[in-house]
From TrEMBL:
Organism: Duganella violaceipulchra
Domain VOC: start-end pairs: 6-124
One Pfam family of this chain: Glyoxalase_6
CDD domains, alphabetized: VOC
Name of the protein: Catechol 2,3-dioxygenase-like lactoylglutathione lyase family enzyme
Entry-linked InterPro entries: Glyoxalase_6, VOC_core
Length: 128
């Protein structure tokens, strides 16, 4: 089974995400969207149409989205089969969150690494 196929996003906390995003826009040329982050579009052998993205997104410093981790960041990894991978991780003794989110944006699940960091696993919708 394929496990991680790429990085889906980099998320991090900031005391002022809007000001930080503006700094990145002005000084590094990131095209920050209305939702507060950037979607870097790319293509590859598994995705020749270039419909895939890697997200970059600052969050408010007091967000609980990264909980139970106390880290100031969270990495989102693209996966080919979220439910299969979560089952495999559970069988391997990993700490896997019970919650799975499914929407038009794909399927999302979470595992906690040995350092206590919450890792987001994302299976994009078909064709993305």
């Amino acid at each position: 089974m394929k496990r991680v196929t790429g990085i889906g996003g980099v998320f991090f906390k900031s005391p002022d995400p809007k000001a930080l995003a503006e700094w990145y826009r002005v000084h590094l040329g990131l095209e920050v969207s209305a939702w507060g982050g950037v979607a870097f579009r790319w293509s590859g052998p598994d995705n020749p149409s270039g419909t895939g993205t890697t997200a970059w997104n600052p969050f408010k410093a007091d967000t609980d989205y990264f909980a139970p981790s106390t880290a100031s960041f969270m990495i989102n990894y693209r996966v080919a089969d979220l439910h299969g991978l979560l089952a495999a991780l559970r069988a391997e003794g990993c700490r896997v969150e019970d919650k799975v989110d499914e929407s038009e944006y794909g399927k999302f699940g979470w595992v906690i690494d040995p350092d206590g960091n919450k890792v987001e696993l994302w299976e994009p919708p078909p064709g993305k």
